[in-house]
Design goal:
The protein is α+β, with helices and mostly antiparallel strands and about 325 residues long. The protein contains nine helices and 16 strands. The strands form four sheets. Strands 8-7-9-6-1-16 form a six-stranded mixed beta sheet. Strands 2-5-10-11 form a four-stranded antiparallel beta sheet. Strands 13-14-12-15 form a four-stranded antiparallel beta sheet. A hairpin with a 6-residue loop joins strand 13 and strand 14. The chain is globular.
């Protein structure tokens, strides 16, 4: 008889080929496949315990009780687990992030990956990696990519059953680092879930999606061959294409600040001068600068010298979601 309680930990990830827009919003079936790497050192740790005495699900994040939309999104995953395990108990979910909120690192990927693993384990289910990836996806699309290890590709699949993320290389395959330049941006941004729903209002989304398998192939090959030159070009192209869609959706989403664009220019100049580094940006203003890990010190130093850069976090390639 198990205890109906489990703790799991998962890393956030940074997408190299972006997920933007769904073909099915409810199931989170994306309009295109995506590729990412997990971020070592940053994690969400979540404990789920199903208890017969609880009148409803409870969610506590970094010591604070969360209600409303946040709790609903968690209960939705717990419902899927309860249904599969054939249990009716409510759960207490306690979650901690070791990275600052507002650091521009999506916490939903690590959060739903850890929740999928902890809740299924607590309910007595032994899910495969593919099943965990599908479950995490229902909470947040990018969370599907935080289940497997290292460099990960999330396949769009033909439906719910094969829309899964798989590892394409372990963390030690290619020693890259993500130097996250945190800039001063106080204004409130539109969340990813609302953003995905706007993607197809942009006249550019169809072109972006039609070209996705080509970009995925180039990115996957660049990772497998450790070809930084072709990796850098496709990374920046894919990020710029996603932001072009964002900026031309209705209503338009403009995540870049002046400092964001200043960093783009600086990164391209450094690369032209022989420092291997390339930029990518998610649904925020902060810039992720990817480089070989032995160059991370130099990249971090240069980023800190730029006006408008408030802080820099450095993460290397991380492992899979795991039970702790
Ligand atoms: C720009 O996975 O956060 O970071 O499924 O609504 O939770 P939801 O969206 P989310 O979207 C991620 C968007 C992105 C690109 C990416 O990570 O691929």
């Amino acid at each position: 008889m198990h205890s109906y309680s489990a703790t799991a930990q998962a890393h956030p990830n940074i997408a190299f080929i972006k997920y933007w827009g769904n073909r099915d919003n409810a199931l989170r079936l994306p309009s295109n496949g995506s590729i990412s790497m997990n971020l070592e050192g940053l994690f969400t740790r979540t404990t789920v315990s199903f208890q017969p005495s609880l009148p409803f699900d409870e969610l506590i994040i970094n010591g604070h009780a969360v209600m409303g939309k946040g709790l609903e999104r968690v209960s939705y995953i717990l419902d899927l687990v309860r249904e599969q395990a054939g249990i009716k108990m409510n759960a207490e979910v306690m979650s901690e992030n070791n990275f600052p909120a507002g650091a521009g690192i999506a916490s939903s990927a690590a959060a739903f990956a850890a929740l999928a693993l902890a809740s299924s384990k607590a309910a007595g289910l032994e899910l495969s990696e593919a099943e965990l990836s599908r479950l995490a996806r229902r909470g947040s699309g990018s969370a599907s990519r935080s289940i497997p290890t290292g460099f990960v590709e999330w396949h769009m699949g033909s439906g719910d059953g094969d829309c899964v993320a798989v590892s394409i290389a372990p963390p030690d395959h290619w020693d890259l680092a993500d130097c996250v330049a945190i800039i001063n941006a106080s204004h409130k941004k539109t969340g990813s879930t609302e953003g995905h729903a706007l993607a197809w209002t942009s006249p550019l989304q169809a072109g972006r999606v039609a070209d996705a398998s080509r970009r995925l192939e180039i990115c996957r090959e660049a990772i497998l061959q450790k070809d930084f030159k072709s990796f850098a070009d496709i990374l920046e192209l894919d990020s710029d294409m996603m932001h072009a869609v964002m900026m031309t959706s209705n209503p338009p989403l403009m995540y870049w600040q002046a400092a964001t664009v200043d960093i783009f220019h600086a990164v391209r100049e450094w690369r032209a001068d022989g420092l291997p580094c390339a930029y990518t940006v998610d649904a925020g203003a902060n810039v992720h600068v990817i480089c070989p890990r032995d160059q991370a010190g130099a990249v971090e130093k240069k980023l800190r010298e730029l006006p408008g850069v408030r802080d820099v976090l450095v993460a290397r390639v991380g492992g899979p979601a795991r039970i702790v």
